[in-house]
Amino acid sequence: MIKIFKTSKNVIINIDEYFNTVELGILNFKEGVNNYLEGNLTEFENNLKIIEVLEGKADSIIRKIENDLYIYSLIPNYASEVLNLLEKVDDIIDKVKNNLSQFDVERPFIPEEIKIDFSRLLNISVKSAENVIPAARVFFTDQNLVKDRIQKVIFYERETDKLATNIKRKVFKEMPHLKLSEKIHLRYFTLHVEEVSDAAEVVAKMLSSLVIKTRM
Amino acid sequence: MFLFFLTSGLFLGWSLGANDAANIFGSAVGTKMVKFSSAVIIASVFVVLGAVLQGYGASQTLGDLGSINAIGGAFTVALCAGLTVFWMTKLQLPVSTSQGIIGAIIGWNFYSGNPTDLAVLSKIIGTWVAGPILGGIFAIVLYLLLKYFLDKRRIHLLKLDAYLKYGLLIVGAFGAYSLGANNVSNVVGVFIPSLPEINLNFGFFSLNSIQLLFLVGGTSIALGIITYSKRVMMTVGNNLMKLSAEAALVVVLSHSLVLFVFSSTTLSNLFQSVGLPGIMLVPVSSSQAIVGAIVGIGLLKGGRGIQFGVLGKISLGWIATPIIAGLTTFVSLFFMNNVFKMVVVQNENNVISHKINEVITHPQTNTSVNLYQPLLFLIIIVLIAVIVVMLVKSIRKSAQTKEDASSERLFKYESQEKILNTELQKVNSENAKLEKQIEFKRKEQMVIALSIIQKNQFLEKLKIKIDKIISKPEVKAEELITLKRLIIDNLSIDKEREKFNFYVNELNADFYLRLVNRFPDLSENEQRLAALIRLNLSSKEIASILNISTKSVEVNRHRLRKKIRLKREENLTEIISKL
Questions:
Q1: A1: contact with B, CB 8 A cutoff
Q2: B441 and B535: one domain?
Q3: Residues B448-496: pLDDT tens digits?
Q4: Cα–Cα distance measured from residue B186 to residue A52, given in angstroms and rounded to the nearest whole number
Q5: How far apart are CA B531 and CA B195, in angstroms?
Q6: Rounded Cα–Cα distance for residues B488 and B498 (Å)
Q7: Distance (Å, whole) CA A139 – CA A205
Q8: Separation in Å, CA of B487 to nearest CA in chain A
Q9: In terms of residue numbers, what domain contains B114?
Q10: What is the pLDDT of residues B119-138, one digit of tens each?
Q11: B449/B497 Cα distance (integer angstroms)
């Protein structure tokens, strides 16, 4: 009971650091894929290394937070929900790391005709993830603002879906010079980039239900 | 004898502690915001303090309603009230000791023929109605204030949690104090008229007989809290409506304020001093104040969360408790009086003459006990010291245990990660070592194959040359024929070839397995041929290694193609190397 303020302060710092780490991971993913599209492979590999370190760091922070929440019974009513939320945020950084490493392993061939579309898809998908982190941050301090941020996430997620469908249509219908294997490969990578915004949407939905639950 | 009769009051106190502590700390403990041990310590200490320091106010009104002048009557009244409360709790009906005791007193009034002061009774009933309403109003105002404050301040969820934990403890302490102050008169109030005059002097403060009685009553409530409140605390709290920690804080604070208002003589005097009517100091029901506060919050939220079935049960309890307590008391007094011959009512004249006699025989009515002063002093100091030491120790111990557990878990995770990493590295280095060995053997195999081929080629040449020499007429053929035989023998028996075969078999063990699995009807020679084809050797080289003619190798290759059903355009070497 006596140490509760000190522990709370530590957990608050850890949560902030955790969100910073995930945000950095998302930015690195965006930069990494852009580097890949431009053919800057050395820079791309550097991004991959950074994202791997960030993912490991996020995992260790979440473990610390989980530990403190359970051992010191902080926010006992919402501890499991908050941890679940952090885990879902962790899914975003896991996803961006996996996607970038898939770019590294499979080295997909992205034709010049769709490079601009692919880059737009990446930017919009990442925007959705970029907006969900401030929403999650603000959940802890001012829950009235969460709704506004969530709206943006949902909007960008829908835009991502539309753009991804357009790219897939273009690849399969307007690019006969590509082999079927190349088309399927491109479809998978479109899907991988799309998954980032899907993960952000999951967090957004969870946040909106949590706001209802924690409201006085 | 007085102490024996007091036991019924103490039983009532015990059941009050067991039930009503849940009103104060139920939500906090149920939601794990406050530990049960902390809740029990705080509730017990403050309930006793409230009883001793501020318990007198509400007891006067009970006296006005009906002054029970015989100890036997007081015993019966407290016992019946206690049993009614106990029985109704068993039936899971929300019950109030205040209503129980008032019903019991009216029952005694009926039995003794003592007139019930209807003005006082109507005021008491008025406070029963006013208590929950006031609780609701307090709750609404406090809830709105807290919400406004929290919206303005934007406190971090975790910081808010810490504030709420301390808030619940402080408000709980205030609640326990108010509970002791307001409800102790329910427990022992009926014994005041029969109380012997004792004054305990502790040097720096003294306790008169009423305060002592309240101390005992408060202690019985504390005992109820310590021994029986856990189960009630765990189940109560969310019965009527699900409460958040913030709402729980507001509810407990409103409840405490209601209890405090109806027991504070200072507040009542303050009202009177500004020309307002004084507050009726009546023991009100703690459960009803809580219900009022919860309903207040429920109404503020639109009334959807309130379980009206539970509310109906509570209303039933309001009416049923005083009636049942009154009836039970009436019947019990009859039995006590007629069966056990106990004096439950004293004639007013008898009482007055008894008091006059007492004054004549014992001119000094106030017995001052100074004998135990040093002893009590010592005991209290020792007890306080022990409690403080135990508290400090337990706090330190729990903090240490938590820290240890936390660091132990982290250490465990880290060491597990390290072990896994080392294992991974070990497996990787072993794999690399094995790869190297395989590579070395493969090279060695190729070297052997080449040396066999070269040697056989050399022997073939030698054989041809000897043939040529034999064909010449001037040369003695016999010795040369022997030499040729020797060469032919050497071509077929070759130790290096055996070694090579051994290597081929060993290195291609899994290849043979895959080959046999896919094409089970291949002979051993065909399997060996496939292995040599896999090494990318030409038919001539294979012929040299197997010591057969190139043509035979070609024929064997053809047979192999047929057996594995290859099409004309398919390459045998490619298919075999892909296996």
A1: yes
A2: yes
A3: 777 877 787 788 888 888 888 887 777 777 777 888 787 777 765 556 6
A4: 69
A5: 112
A6: 17
A7: 13
A8: 57
A9: 2-370
A10: 888 888 888 888 889 999 99
A11: 8
